[in-house]
Amino acid sequence: MTERREDASNPDVGGARRRVYIKTYGCQMNVYDSQRMSDALAKDGYEPTEVIEDADLVLLNTCHIREKAAEKVYSELGRIRLLKAERAEQGREMRVGVAGCVAQAEGQEILARAPAVDLVIGPQTYHRLPEALARVAAGEKVVETDYAVEDKFDHLPTAEEKRIRARGVTAFLTVQEGCDKFCTFCVVPYTRGAEVSRPLARIVEEARRLAASGVREVTLLGQNVNAWSGEDEAGRPVGLGGLLHRLARIEGIARLRYTTSHPRDMDDELIAAHRDLDILMPYLHLPVQSGSDKVLKAMNRRHDAAEYLRLIERIRAARGDIALSGDFIVGFPGESDADFEDTMRLVSEVGYASAFSFKYSPRPGTPGAAMDDHVSEAVKAGRLERLQALIRDQQTAFAASLVGTTMDVLIEKPGRYAHQLVGRSPYLQPVVLSSESGAVGDMVRVEIAATLPNSLMAQGADAPSRRTA
Ligand code: SAH
Ligand code: SF4
Ligand code: F3S
User: Fold this and answer.
1) Is 2's pLDDT higher than 50?
2) 124, 158, 267, 427: which has the fewest Cβ within 10 Å?
3) Which ligand is nearest to the CA of 195?
4) Residues 6 or more apart from 340 whose CB is under 8 A from it?
């Protein structure tokens, strides 16, 4: 049994220490936000739990990007409703909050559809979470979805605060949020608001703290991370390339990454950073969505396929060993067979190390949803299958090309067996290593001996060594 300490400052839960269960859907930005919410709640006396049945507060940090993602939340809320009723029978309360992009997009509607919900809180208002929970405790149903004038990042506690434990050797750091691009399929500009860049000094400070708490790899996050812009101490403009140069000087940080980028914002300075900074991993997520100029135009991507290919050439010229990943949508309204073949051709031409692909999902309120010429589900499914087969082949070929090469691997955690550890390749693949290679947090150089379905195996990782067996 877990110890339940008396805590007089939390009288509303009968003196027991409060526990929060947070479930995260969607992108890395939500992962980052969930950690910040957990930190903010720690200050308020909540400790995290992985067991939903134990929770006094359940928070779903939701995603609205495709219909499926949003629907998952409602089925989860159905299950939670039963749990909440069970708890009420035992005389204990369970409060339920919906955060994230579904909260922002649907607001009040969530309360109507899911009566178990006590609190709806949009991504720009997390710093008001403690206050909102106090209102919930007083019996109110709370909806907080205004875009706040104050900056949520200024209020959310970060890793330096006492109770906050280090979360491993890799960490996300949000540097930019929101989007002004308005691709016609996408809800992000509506759920996350306009593009906002965090100031350079704040980012450097947070990165230093992460490094001090043992983090060795930092991934800068933004919906359009390469649209980040700031100023140096002298007031001169700095872009993401310049920011990466600053972060590269922080002691303890061994690897930098950034995601997600828009092709339109890949400037010369950023491309040069790939040439000049070894610490910047040679792996770039650069979504193109489609290989058809007609579809790209209808999506409002504001570049054509040839421009994307030229950009890839320039990036490869700067950093020969760079590997690419991307996002694709099949079945956007008006996409013909020929348009889809253009996408297949582009994928063949680029050669991706990995890529995500999705069936177009019409989202309420976006221009795409109102377009004519929607593609049938069956056609979408057929196209997705062909595209995914091609991407899978490329991914397998890329992994196979690494066998026999040596690479730096950052050790992240123990493996499944006592004689193994798991690390990350520069290309984000999990690498299984021998426990004799080093310790968690070490960067080690290993030779890749074989590929497994979703990971790589380093030389000597398969056999337990004499010492540990
Ligand atoms: N800012 C990033 C993408 C964020 S959303 C960019 O511009 O590339 C992540 C991915 O989800 C997108 O790249 C797109 O491939 C996919 N996506 C977004 N809206 C979608 C929709 N309505 N239907 C299907 N896939 C979608
Ligand atoms: Fe969505 Fe386009 Fe903005 Fe990416 S750039 S978040 S796809 S609107
Ligand atoms: Fe989803 Fe919102 Fe991220 S819609 S992909 S959680 S920005």
Assistant:
1) no
2) 267
3) 2
4) 292, 330, 383
